[in-house]
TrEMBL record:
<dbReference type="GO" id="GO:0055085">
    <property type="term" value="P:transmembrane transport"/>
</dbReference>
<dbReference type="GO" id="GO:0015833">
    <property type="term" value="P:peptide transport"/>
</dbReference>
<keyword id="KW-0067">ATP-binding</keyword>
<feature type="domain" description="ABC transporter">
    <location>
        <begin position="5"/>
        <end position="256"/>
    </location>
</feature>
<dbReference type="Pfam" id="PF00005">
    <property type="entry name" value="ABC_tran"/>
</dbReference>
<dbReference type="InterPro" id="IPR050319">
    <property type="entry name" value="ABC_transp_ATP-bind"/>
</dbReference>
<dbReference type="InterPro" id="IPR013563">
    <property type="entry name" value="Oligopep_ABC_C"/>
</dbReference>
<dbReference type="InterPro" id="IPR003593">
    <property type="entry name" value="AAA+_ATPase"/>
</dbReference>
<comment type="similarity">
    <text>Belongs to the ABC transporter superfamily.</text>
</comment>
<dbReference type="InterPro" id="IPR027417">
    <property type="entry name" value="P-loop_NTPase"/>
</dbReference>
<keyword id="KW-0813">Transport</keyword>
<dbReference type="GO" id="GO:0005524">
    <property type="term" value="F:ATP binding"/>
</dbReference>
<keyword id="KW-0547">Nucleotide-binding</keyword>
<dbReference type="GO" id="GO:0016887">
    <property type="term" value="F:ATP hydrolysis activity"/>
</dbReference>
<dbReference type="InterPro" id="IPR017871">
    <property type="entry name" value="ABC_transporter-like_CS"/>
</dbReference>
<protein>
    <submittedName>
        <fullName>Oligopeptide/dipeptide ABC transporter ATP-binding protein</fullName>
    </submittedName>
</protein>
<dbReference type="InterPro" id="IPR003439">
    <property type="entry name" value="ABC_transporter-like_ATP-bd"/>
</dbReference>
Amino acid sequence: GDVLMEVEDLRKWFPVASGGFLRRKHEHVQAVDGVSLQVRRGETLGLVGETGCGKSTLARCMIRLHDATSGRVTFEGQDITAMSRRELRPLRREIQMIFQDPYGSLNPRRRIGSIIGDPFAIHGVSSGTERKRKVQELMELVGLNPEHYNRFPAEFSGGQRQRIGVARALAMRPKLIICDEPVSALDVSIQAQIINLLADLQKEFNLTYVFIAHDLSVVRHVSDRVAVMYLGKVAEIADVDDLHERPRHPYTNALLSAVPVADPDVSDQRERIILRGDVPSPLNPPSGCRFHPRCPKAADQCVVEEPLLISRSGDAATHLAACHLPVQPGENLAEARPTLA
Ligand code: SF4
Ligand code: MG
């Protein structure tokens, strides 16, 4: 499809002060640091990475819940990073967000009919019985009983509360919905129901999703393309099957090797790759390739030179990886050792 949203060299740095009163230092958490990617109309783009990799911050910049430090986000060709609050208002209908914790985002003292009707109130779209009718239609659409209009959030299960979140996101008939770990807090049995609901709604309303998860196995089932993030940058981005069958970035390989494969016949049966150490602080990210302190393939070049996110010969043009020494087919990273001087 054509490009619905484009992110260009986006940075979001959060200032932090440290060092006490006399030796005050002003540093920055480089939560998102130079991300470029496109979201195509009608697709689901999976966004994957460990806690703190910047995926939620990136999502919040996409909907202007955060103002970017630098770079651009355009939606249907309009630069939303440069818009005033007033200019943004019509876009607030077209881009919606679903959050991980549906309970935390619902006011426990309000009835769900009124919660789902919020967007109508905010945008002054309808009122009274007309609004109630629209809210009840939305409830039906997401598999809630419209007669439960007057109930409170606590009267619903976790899965039902996520359906309330979905209904509220749908109210303004958005084009893009950013789903920030929408099933991570739910029981596995309920996860599939919500994922199926999102898939049905996508077809029915031609929705585009950015689907954030820390788990590649969830993302595989819902995404057309996947971007893997590490320490504020995109490590690899590709069509979902390319990414699983021919991962090029050692970090992607490590993530995939941790995904249990139920079917012993499938091709991506991998030896588990154990990464050294923890994710370094985004306050002071490593030089060169940010993954180098943990990478099983790290070489001297990786310490000094930042790899570009590019496509390699033999790969699809849509398959980009930021690595000086991309993984070759059949290469066993579980046995690789860094060659640092
Ligand atoms: Fe590993 Fe070097 Fe590739 Fe970074 S650039 S992922 S350190 S091989
Ligand atoms: Mg998060």
